[in-house]
Amino acid sequence: MSVRNHPGDGGVSRRGFLGFSAAAGATVLLGSACGAGGVGGGAGNGTGKIRALFMKQAGYSESDIRKMTAAFQKANPKIQVDVELVAYEALHDKIVAAAPAHTYDVVLIDVIWPAEFGSKRIVTDVTGKVSGGIRNGMLPGALATAEYRDHYYGLPWILDTKYLFYNKAHLRKAGVDAASLDTWDGVRAAAKQIKSKGVVDTPLAWSWKQVEALVCDYTQLLGAYGGAFLTPDGKSAAFQTGGGLDALTFMRGTIDDGLTNKGSITWIEDDVLKTFSQGQASFMLNWTYGYAGANDPKASKVAGDVGVLRTPAGPGGKRPGVNGSMALCVSGGSRNQAAAWTYITYLTGAPVQDQYATSSLPCWHASYDDPEVAKANPKIVPIAKEQLADLIARPQVPRYNEMSQVLQAQLQRCLAQGADPAAVLKSAADQAKRILA
Amino acid sequence: MRASLGYRIFVHAMAAVVAVIILAPLAWLVYASLVPRVELLALPYHWWPRHWTAQRYADIFAAGGDVAGTFRYALVNSLIVACVTVVIALCVAVLGGYAYARLRFPLRRATLTLFLTTYMLPPITLVIPLYLTLSQFGLLDSKTGLIIMYCSLATPFALWTMSNFLSSLPAELEDAARVDGCSRLGALVRVILPLARPGIVATGLFAFLLCWDEFLYALVFTSTANAKTIPVAIAEFTGRNAVDFGLIAAGGVLATIPPVVIGVAFQRYLLGGLASGAVKG
Amino acid sequence: MAASRDRRGQAWLALALLAPAAVVVFGVVLYPALRALWISFFDVDSPMPGAYPFTGIGNYRDVLTDPLVWTAAGHTVYFTLVSTAAELVLGVLLALLMNAPLRARWLLRAIVIVPWALPTIVNGAMWTGLLNSQYGPVNALLTQLHVTSHYISFLGSPFLALNLVIVADVWKNTSLVAFFLLAGLQTIPHGLYEAARVDGAGPVRAFFSITLPLLRPTIAIVLVLRTMEAFKVFDIIYVMTGGGPASGTQTVTFLTYLKAFSDQRFGYGSAMAYLIVVVILVLSTIYLRLLRQSDMGAAA
Description:
The complex is a heterotrimer.
Chain A lengths: L26 E3 L18 E8 L6 H14 L3 E8 L1 H11 L7 E5 L3 H6 L12 H6 L2 H4 L3 E2 L2 E2 L2 E4 L4 E5 H7 L9 H13 L7 E2 L6 H13 L17 H15 L12 H9 L5 E4 L2 H6 L11 E4 L11 E2 L3 E5 L6 H12 L1 H6 L15 H6 L3 H8 L3 E2 L7 H18 L3 H16 L1
Parallel strand pairs in A: 2-3, 2-4, 9-10, 12-14
Antiparallel strand pairs in A: 4-13, 5-6, 7-13, 8-10, 8-11
Helix pairs in contact in A: 6-7, 8-9, 16-17
Chain B lengths: L4 H30 L2 H4 L14 H7 L9 H32 L5 H13 L6 H10 L6 H25 L3 H9 L4 H12 L1 H17 L2 H6 L8 H6 L9 H22 L15
Helix pairs in contact in B: 1-13, 4-7, 4-10, 5-7, 7-10, 8-9
Chain C lengths: L1 H38 L11 E3 L4 H7 L2 H33 L5 H13 L2 H11 L6 H8 L13 H28 L4 H9 L4 H29 L3 H6 L11 H11 L3 H25 L10
């Protein structure tokens, strides 16, 4: 979430279908060492030991998770939960490596993985278990976190999107009205004004390193400019024209105008927050944690001057936020899937989420009208209530990681090396077509 | 034999230059570990900080901390894993290295190449089958599992370097010992090994630091304070929400101390062998 | 008759002496290595056991026709050649220095161990911090000395970033080379130098006629070791650049990681791994030939 260091690159051509590749049903069984590995999960009897894999960054803290788990075990004495935490960067690979070995019963997954993990049965399809209460009670954007092709592969737990943060003092000095930040054009005009008044040399800071963070920023802009990643049939790319192209043209334009800090192409969200917190940038697009971070007097010079808004709108008035949520899933290899599901429904339930709202905003509609929740984060909650109802997803395709690597590489060719936006997106779209096929 | 004054001044000056090149980045690492987060980001740059803080070191050693708590365990795990690996790798490498250095047998070169080839495979491609195997033997998240992995990494090179160092010793020494009634192994242990000390120490240091540094296997195969090693613990300092580089720096500074202490303790054995004059020309 | 019995005796002894090493290495590596080789002929796209289509050399063909692989291979070869050359030259000089008559020689050796002891992931973070475009001391120093007029995004341009990753790698790994060569220096009998001195050879000639030739086996070892490790470079790239900017620091092992893990194209990734082995084998053989190590085992 906050630190998305999923390294990436590379336009990869999906392997061309070789004549003999599919020939004659030549297949082989790749068994494990002693033939005992494999999917082979089971429901179990709903009690006993389960192991859950979480991540260390963002959202709920380690002590939050341990407290929730302790409370769960108190309520369900027949289930014993072992909690493990890894860094976000290691989460995907750990889930993949552990999948054939039945190590974990519950895994936390990022919003970009349900298609991949679901189609490979690394996580289980729980569509039948998602009750009407959940379907109606949870925010649609949240539910979509673990959804792929109308099937649910888990329940959302950490809900997040990117907001626009601005430095009130900079705006004052440059004579910019915060109301003008309602659109990206307004943001660009404000940045020009700030730059020309000499308040900050490069008012914009972004997380445009060649990792997933870049795609998150791009997604949000693509949404604002009314673009789409895929054609309606899902078989080819649609970002190379229209909103997708406008978004990249906008990004490149802010570099050409000297408004974007050049360091942006080496930064992830945390670097952006540091730059903003030092008063070196007037605007940043960042996750919810950016608000607390920039307002922490111990870490920030701009504490008290931080404004937060919904993400700005494009010319058509659209302003979806990128879906940056995470979901809890029952792993395909779990032999105790019933108990795992009990644990997941407990953690994702409204009472627990409301209780820990200061750590991470709840996934439930009703929570946002709960005064206790609003009190936890009074500045963010009213904005979040609107923003979280309007989210845009990155492409939900099984080979998303490959597609993202292609996009990252091509976007960076434009942002770091000045290549033509239309040309790089065309190249990315050509490669994406093979990945989607 | 006494070196000229000019030469001695020259080598001391060079040593000073080397020390600066090595220590300057490290000095900054120490600085970053002792300066509050905000000041690390100060502009213009604070060459001398207004405030110092030892809080990160305190956090690292505080029990049950949210972020840094596992570091102490990781330090112990790393030491155990590295030491046991060094002992095992050196033992098998001395025996095997002797065979390559002194014996003639079929497929000698081919087998050595085969050993080295295992080191050429990117570990990333072996991770999944290894995970499954470790899981089946109940060795996931255990120091034993890591030791077994690291021995397989360190041994091929240890084997080659030991064969090199052993074969650089004159065979006459060993022959003399055997004429005196020693068995082959007796001669190896009593005559050859003491002379091969520099090679053994360098190889041991190599094996130790290989374990100390290894990241991928440790990341995938360990998950709790039971077996997590230092690089994994430090990687997790990225912590909640924000990366505090100072914490990573503090972990890095602490991580260098044990190998340096061990290195200093053993460095005098790097001298010796033939150069100390055991054998004349 | 006696000779052949001795031969056989030596072969059995060698087998006995090599058995422990073989168990330790192949006991662990053999199964996964063979499995990876097997997988490289199939279109395996999941870690789960199951039936996957046989593709023959399809994966190998895909790897070799992928322009990305060739770009990454270019970066890798550049990284490998430059970093090993730098480490070797600096390592020889450093080894000579550590062997020179210095006061507090132990102190120099202690200092030289430190970069080697610093975990790679911290080394990468350290250099990223030093070179930071906003708060890094290198930028502060260069502008304060008026070498540069404004802060530079060092890791923001592809070729510069690749070279700076090499700097970070050389800074750390020269120590390893130096320590092996220092140990190698100890195997050179002092008498040779004395004889050379009597013959009127200066220190430079002694270095080229005695030290370097006798160090050759050790040089061969560190050269091959560093080549293998440089060719497989992963951690420092992961930490410093993530392969960026604009894929400018993407190496073959990094690409293998992306393919095999992020993308779960295990067949393709395994094929790449074995192609990497072939390249390293070829490179190592060339080095050993160049160093005239016709017999890899005995001398080297």
